[in-house]
Amino acid sequence: MSPRTTNKSATADEQPAAAEPAAAKKAPTRKQPARKKPAEQKPAAKASAAKTATAETATAKTAPKKTAPKKAAAKKTTTATTAKAAPRRTRTPAGLSAGLVAELDRVVDGWHHDPHSVLGLHGRDLRVLRPGAVEVDAVLPDSTRVGLTHRHRGVFAARLPQKTEDYRIAVRYEEGGPELIEADAYRAAPTVGELDLHLIGEGRHEELWRALGAHTTTVEGPMGEVSGTGFAVWAPDARGVRVIGDFNYWNGIAHPMRSLGSSGVWELFVPGVGDGDLYKFQVLGADGHWRDKADPMARRTQMPPATASVVTTSEHVWSDEQWMTDRKGSEPHRAPMSVYEVHLGSWRPGLDYRELADQLVEYVSDMGFTHVEFLPVAGHPFDGSWGYQVTSYYAPTPRFGSPDEFRHLVDSLHRAGIGVFLDWVPAHFPKDEWALARFDGTALYEHPDPRRGEHPDWGTLIFNYGRTEVRNFLVANALYWLEEFHIDGLRVDAVASMIYLDYSRDSGQWEPNLFGGRENLEAIDFLKELNTTVYRRNPNVAMIAEESTAYTGVTSPVDHGGLGFGLKWNMGWMHDSLEYVKKEPVHRKYHHNDITFSMVYAYSENYVLPLSHDEVVHGKQSLFNKPPGDEWQRAATLRALLSFMWSHPGKQLLFMGGEIAQGDEWSHEAGVPWWLLQFEHHAGTQRLVKALNDAYRPRSALWSLDTEPAGFSWLDGGDHEGNTLSYLRRGEDGSVLACAVNFSPVPRPNWRVGLPAEGRWTSVLNSDDPRFGGSGYEAPTAVEAQPQEWHGQPFSAEITLPPLGAVWFEPER
């Protein structure tokens, strides 16, 4: 064994005496743990007291995982404990000043703002915190060992015989027990740079995920590389922060973090921690309570209901170069967009990301949709929810696999020519104590005023959009999904709840803005900043607002006074159209304006027409069961509605299950009832949706001028007695399509329709076709336009308008 130098009368905390080190063998280096899958967090066994422990010795042992003979008791990760306002009064150890004892107490108690100024190597003075250790040596580059003396509450110290640029710590936790050799966490420089801190302070760090969170890294030194993980978290009002995890048995005494100036960021590099390790931040809040918090910037999390964060590094190699190149030349509002809205957990229950990459991609490709839109995939605690109560904004839910496996799903969709949108939730977040709520003992992410900081209907908290760091957290999160996961657009949830202070509040429950209005000016500024930043960095993505009010300028450019979104869900069209088809056909003539009113404002914004998840839950019934009548009539009405939707100005979005005329409301447990496809009405509806997409994508008349009046003109929008609609769609390339819809069960033979050109017009689509489950009532495949003026057009033709059906015709080329 190497000779060991110990000078108990000359420690780092007393007047030193010269000591010559004896020759020693080279100290062994510690191997890094192999990468492993994250395990469930489990309470550690209680640590047994060492035989030599004194009143000054810490009550828990901290040692590298796997090799330590004892574990410290783990604290529950969702409860708060009260911290003392000051360290307990202790007898000053011989040779230590009262000031130094106070410093050491603050370090051990976890509320020192800069433990690096006390621990680590300072000149020749070395202090290390190893609670529960019975023997601690410093191992120098020349293999010399210097024994450290226990000075106070688990702090060991010595004055080294000469200055050194590197060292290792050799520790035993039991007399005669195994020796652990490890690097010192308090030797490394900060892993967050000055520029990062400046940008965080300014609220302008557009790649915040690269600065905060947990990042594996390597520190160089004379004794070789030290691999570990740099942890950083924003908690400006915290009195202290520790990092805890499976690497220290969930006891953070030995890993207090340092505060980096006025930035509010706490940081620590922990040697030996690598991918797959679990961790949390133990935060001593401004209110004096300790809370175990998941990392707000965690890029991977444990499987719920466990709540720890997971260290991770992406190794995915993208293969969607062609898609990303093609996207650069696209304009979403001038391109075809037929969106299939998917809840990953219930599309086909039991599939993981990789299985979805096979089965979902194949299905969406076959159905002809241009995009999928995933309901929120960011981490959320409840399995049976849509996912709108987000607790981990930077981590895909682990229910279906790892972040890289989610990247694989996106990659596979792109290679198949399918775009990917995500539902994104910046409007509110849940109150779970282990997540964002009162993160540092104050209202940090949420607004401190409950009138602006709490949502009365949803029981959630509302972000403080006036705080620069909070806006930065959200803007960077949007960029993270777009850039790190190659997402093609974000559907921003609940925009109306953000921009109105009185949203879902009674009189007296809200406070007007600075100018006496009801608009949330801070949220509006945030949305403008969000869209400006996203489009500057990713100009060809789609930012889509779910906004349900008449707020003007949602899709107008920011420099024109708008919010800067690219598209907006047309909630008015959805509501009015569904209310119309719910009526008995004989009564629809009294509500004809419901089905035509959307064209009054169709060009005030750039619209998406949604038949979304919101309309198939909470007693609203499925799309198939909304219309009255028998099964045939309900199926026919749904086919007519879908045909109307696909030919109406605006992009289309259909929630899964709607394409097979699902009868029941959505169920997380049951998923989409694919067994219905054995019945003709359901299989026929699915074939119709496929035919709609197949007709839609190659015909620019249906999408290239969605946002311009030149793309649509009524032939007859006022036939309320007959429950019919007829109109023309036009494309940038001069193409034209004639569409007619009959929302009556009465067929209309010899029905004359005006046309802009003479000659032969061929049938593109007939929703009453028997292959879709229709009646096939006198369905011509082509008509001849005659020079007879009708509907304001110079030509016209007689067609058969089927019962509860729609037909499309185009001029023969």
Automatic annotation (TrEMBL):
Residues 10-26, 41-62, 75-85 have a biased composition (Low complexity). The active site is at 493 (nucleophile), 546 (proton donor). Signal peptide: none annotated. InterPro entries: A-amylase/branching_C, Branching_enzy, GH, GH13_cat_dom, GlgB, GlgB_N, GlgB_N_E_set_prok, Glyco_hydro_13_N. One of its GO terms (biological process) is glycogen biosynthetic process. Its EC number is 2.4.1.18. Residues 1-91 are annotated as: Disordered. GO terms for cellular component: cytosol. Pathway: Glycan biosynthesis; glycogen biosynthesis. Keywords: Carbohydrate metabolism, Glycogen biosynthesis, Glycogen metabolism, Glycosyltransferase, Transferase. Residues 341-680 form the Glycosyl hydrolase family 13 catalytic domain. It catalyses: Transfers a segment of a (1->4)-alpha-D-glucan chain to a primary hydroxy group in a similar glucan chain. The keyword Lipid metabolism does not apply. Residues 27-36, 63-74 have a biased composition (Basic residues). Pfam families: Alpha-amylase, Alpha-amylase_C, CBM_48, GlgB_N. SMART domains: Aamy. It comes from the Bacteria. GO terms for molecular function: 1,4-alpha-glucan branching enzyme activity; cation binding; hydrolase activity, hydrolyzing O-glycosyl compounds. Monomer. Catalyzes the formation of the alpha-1,6-glucosidic linkages in glycogen by scission of a 1,4-alpha-linked oligosaccharide from growing alpha-1,4-glucan chains and the subsequent attachment of the oligosaccharide to the alpha-1,6 position. Belongs to the glycosyl hydrolase 13 family. GlgB subfamily. This is 1,4-alpha-glucan branching enzyme GlgB. The lineage of its organism: Bacteria, Bacillati, Actinomycetota, Actinomycetes, Streptosporangiales.
